Amino acid sequence: MIDLFRKNRAFFLTYLVALVGVGILQLIYTKEELIRWVNSYNAPWADVFFDNATYLGDGAFSFIIIAILFIRSKWMGILASGSFAISGLLSIFLKRVVFPHNLRPLKYFEHSDWEYHVLKGLDIHSYNSFPSGHTITAFAVFSLLAMLDERKGRGWALALLAILVGYSRVYLFQHFVEDVYAGSIVGTLSTLLVFYYFNLWRERRRLKERTESMGDL
């Protein structure tokens, strides 16, 4: 496991800096103050940008990644399918079973006199806010791509893409910061564990096949 972190340090160090930084902000400020701050920095170009960037955390995007990985390698496709299936099931379980009544920002501030910024025509949900499903998917996808990528130096860019999706969920008034924070942890850990144990299983299988082939000589 340590070797896995070392090989992918560009991704994990970038993510760790963001995790610690946002964690400190949550200790200093309330979730209401944080979303007010994010919501106050809006612009027409940002509305368009984040409205499209958030789809990198959509389930359809993860299916596209699975299809591409299957084309490249059968084991990569199987690994991606397992990783995204587990992260998706965790998302559903946490949102609908453990935290079913957590309010989304729009419902939370329903009776507030705060004039918040929302995109016109955007479908914003009211419940199942914690954790952010899009963020879980984004971190599951991009952490997996970072670990599969032979060019480890660009792992930081993949981490930033995942972080971008998380920020988009707050910008679009779909989630609080705490929702995307938890989502990033769930997505990353689920992929990390699946990747580690899947490769451990493959290595043991190879060793067993090698031993059996030597025994037949």
Task: Report the mean per-residue pLDDT as an integer.
Answer: 91
Tell me the distance between the termini: 35 Å
In total, the number of strands is: 0
CATH architectural type:
Up-down Bundle
State the domain count: 1
Q: Under CATH, the topology is which?
A: Vanadium-containing Chloroperoxidase, domain 1
Pairing-aware structural class of the strands and helices? mainly alpha
CATH class: Mainly Alpha
Order of helices and strands: HHHHHHHHHH
Q: How many helix segments? A: 10
In terms of DSSP E residues, the strand content is: under 5%
Low-confidence stretches: none
Shape: elongated
* Helical proportion, percent range: over 70%
Biggest pleated-sheet summary? none
The oligomeric state is single chain
Rg from C-alpha positions? 19 Å
Organism: Nibrella saemangeumensis
InterPro entries: PAP2/HPO, PAP2/HPO_sf
Membrane topology: Multi-pass membrane protein
Pfam family, one: PAP2
